[in-house]
Amino acid sequence: MSGEFYVTGSKCIPVMKSLFLLHAETESKLLCDQPNSFSSALASAILQALKAHLRRVEMVTPLALATMVDPRFKHLGFRDSAQRGQIVSQLKNELFQEEEAV
Fold first, then answer.
1. Residue 62, helix vs strand vs coil
2. H helices of the chain, where?
3. Hey, CA dihedral for 95, 18, 2, 56, is it positive or negative?
4. First-to-last CA distance in the chain?
5. Cβ(58)–Cβ(80) under 8 Å?
6. Are residues 87 and 64 in contact, defined by beta-carbon separation less than 8 angstroms?
7. With bands split at pLDDT 50, 70 and 90, how would you rate the model's confidence at 2?
8. Hey, CA dihedral for 75, 76, 81, 87, is it positive or negative?
């Protein structure tokens, strides 16, 4: 049984990262082309709202662990390298604990 036909938790962080990058690119183009327009102000407001609501997704441990062990994403899914390092350390600790228990 695979996640081919439904969304899995490991996709949440990479999709969020892609959304941020795409929107930041769109915002920068609008700010260059039309710096004082309504569309550039709206783009900035949307980006700030995205940051406020979705910035903590990488801190949700089950989602971060699922992303890290998914071979499609691993390190590519994370925006914050410090958070990625913490998840790698946590995963290593869990593996060592399992090894010691066996």
1. helix
2. 12-33, 38-54, 61-69, 81-101
3. positive
4. 27
5. yes
6. yes
7. low
8. negative
SS3 37: coil
| pLDDT over 70, % of the chain | 95
How far is it, in rounded angstroms, from Cα 79 to Cα 87?
13
For the residues 30-36, what does the mean pLDDT come to?
A: 80
Helix axes 12-33, 61-69, angle to 10 degrees: 90
CA–CA dist 60, 40 (Å, integer): 31
Residue 14 · residue 76 · CB < 8 Å: yes
Residue-range domain boundaries for the chain: 9-101
Tokens of 63: 């989602």
CA–CA dist 43, 62 (Å, integer):
31
From CA 31, how far away is CA 18, in angstroms rounded? 20
CA contacts within 13 A on the Cβ side of 86: 12
